[in-house]
Amino acid sequence: MSHDRPQVSRRGFLAGTAAAAATAAAPAIAQVAAAGPAEAATRPNILLIVTDDQPKHTDWAIQKTINWIAGQGVKFTNGHVTTPLCAPSRSSVFSGRYAHNHGVRDNGHAYNLDQSTTVQRYLKQAGYRTGLFGKYLNSWALSDSPPHFEDFAFLQPGYVDAQWNVNGTVQTINGYTTNIIKNKTLNFLDKAATDTRPWFAYVTPYASHEPNTPAAQYANTVVPDWNGRPSVPENDRSDKPQYVKNATNTLADGQAVRKRQLRTLLSVDDAVQAFKDKLTALGQLNNTLVIYIGDNGFQWADHGLLGKGTPYSPAHEVPFYLSWPAAGLNAGTTDNRIVGNIDIAPTILDAAGITPNTPQDGKSLLGSFSRDHLLVEWWKQGSTGVKDTWASYVAKDKQYVEYYDLWTDANGNETGTGQVTFREYYDLVNDQYQLTNKLYQATPAAEQNLGIPALASQLAADRAS
């Protein structure tokens, strides 16, 4: 994963030889169906934690999480989501596919996801015990049981005394939902004491989504001061699209949301610590692959904007950590590759020794694959809205954005002329806060010098692939 330790995937680890380890990043992965009982017994458990609207710079609130999953695992410093919106992002987590391929382009069309392409389907089919605890997909009816989960407590988003579907029964459960999710997950883990099957737990607290209601014990917790970043008080936004020029949120607005978000995340941190303690007690910490990611980021009044759904870094950069001690991923290293939520499903299937029979856009993080850029995309839902659909080429050193005359129709399908309505280019080396759009009033010669024709061509190819 990092330069100071060898690349070791599941196959190399299980073989236990230097020769096998040296070839661990090879693309061929054994089918679980062909695995014997000994190999099946070594398959890792999977704990996947996906928070809601958690931006990257929230470390203060999740210190126990970071100490475990990053400090005894891997911290991805360039972690992104490929669509900064809840349902599309979560569908990408499940399927390993871009939203333009899995079909959930907005929050209104969860049923567009082909459930046969999901990681939970593959794991359940391969003999895993599967569980879902928390939020599922926006617009999914609470009365509909989520496919391929054997045990679930699925939440109608909320913080206190919320509605749930618990294994097919819709009910109100009194209490703070993050704590309920924690307890339901712990009960699921406890079953491992008597059920020898490997398990997959998908744990999805509502934190830190608005209204960012903290648990009672954290309601007045003092959080560190934050005085913004250069993108917050940006005075001249004339080079930005109209919705940004019209934005009116202030530093005080950003500070208020940040404070509430951090307070809600403290309960998530408590839950994660409880999971670690339970796995330790069960003797299962070593061979559990743990992944932690936010479903999208959040702008704290950057460029005058609160929220997500924009091409700016705070909206699509997320915390992203991974630990798997049994495979040697326990050293507290950093990985600077450009990685995304589309890589989660391929990583889990690689670890479990499962070869999917449906296409995936992401790549296993257990191998050596490294991309030079990532496609990030977002759609306007319906023909009204303050910003146009956009797509972006995101690299470490630059970002190119195109807005389009496109939106999703009543079925969640893309419609419109597709005409480019606005473009942006940012030099992320010298302008990490995206203050200067170098394409604003740029001459054709300047565009050539920036390499825009090639970037536009690559972006078009990415959107079509």
Automatic annotation (TrEMBL):
InterPro entries linked: Alkaline_phosphatase_core_sf, Sulfatase_N, TAT_signal
Occurrences of domain Sulfatase N-terminal (ranges): 44-354
Superkingdom of the organism of origin: Bacteria
N-terminal signal peptide: 1-30
Claim: Transcription is one of the keywords in the record: no
Record's keyword terms, sorted: Signal
Entries under PANTHER family matching the protein: N-ACETYLGLUCOSAMINE-6-SULFATASE FAMILY MEMBER (PTHR43108), SD21168P (PTHR43108:SF8)
Protein name: Sulfatase N-terminal domain-containing protein
Lineage: Bacteria, Bacillati, Actinomycetota, Actinomycetes, Kitasatosporales
